[in-house]
Amino acid sequence: MRTVVFDLDGTLANTSGDLIAAANACFRDLGLGDQLDAALDQKTAVRGAKAMLRLGLERAGVPDEDVVDAQYQPLLNYYGQAISTHTYLYDGAITAINGLVDAGYRVAICTNKPEALAIQLLTALGVLDHFHAMLGSDTLPVRKPDPEHLFETVRRAGGDTTRCLLVGDTETDSKTARAAGVPSVLVTFGPAGEDMAALMPDALLDHYDDLGAVVRRLIG
């Protein structure tokens, strides 16, 4: 079956506020105070926990990869304690997903967020049951941009790996789709939206209202 696979952070939901809050909690524990700005550092937030830790430590003048590694789990712990305080789904996302399902598509999530946290977040947002499969960064021995992460997501959703596409918001998503030989759709409303055109995806998505038409054009 035709399958549409979605990234999570920055694609289905803006999670940057809660991610940045967790990172700042780590910096406060280190005696550095808040180092990240919820509005200005959204691009870094969607690149993951270690990217936020690196940026904050660089700003504080104490770049140290050992500290990044040591603070990774504490950051995830803080994040799990307040995972949906500031997070919100992008406008029209669930309506578009329901429309795809009604039209006979399988829908799934392939994210580099740890699986338990992804399930926790999707449950808190009340949308976990809208998807036929959900694979996180630690579900398999590999993760995006390895194409097997995407292919196994499609398989677990009951889909056909030769008739799928990936909707995302980062260079990692672009690389994943390219490695898998499937179409990529990159959203322009995420934190790095203005950078997406340069990645030359098969389609840019300005609003979820347009998703159905884009999907039909790319995979039928």
Short descriptors:
alpha/beta, elongated, six-stranded parallel beta sheet, 220 residues, 13% strand, two-stranded antiparallel sheet, Rossmann fold
What would a concise description of this structure say?
It contains 9 helices and 8 strands.
Describe the structure.
This protein has two domains: 3-14 and 87-219, HAD superfamily/HAD-like (Rossmann fold), CATH 3.40.50.1000; 16-81. The relative contact order is 0.17. It is an alpha/beta fold and 220 residues long. The protein has helices spanning 16-29, 42-45, 49-59, 65-81, 93-102, 115-124, 147-156, 171-180, 211-219, and strands at residues 3-6, 13-14, 88-89, 106-110, 133-135, 164-168, 184-187, 203-205. Helix content is 43%, strand content 13%. It contains nine helices and eight strands. The strands form two sheets. A six-stranded parallel beta sheet has the order 5-4-1-6-7-8, with helices on both faces. It is elongated, with a radius of gyration of 17 Å. It comes from Loktanella salsilacus. One of its GO terms (cellular component) is cytosol.
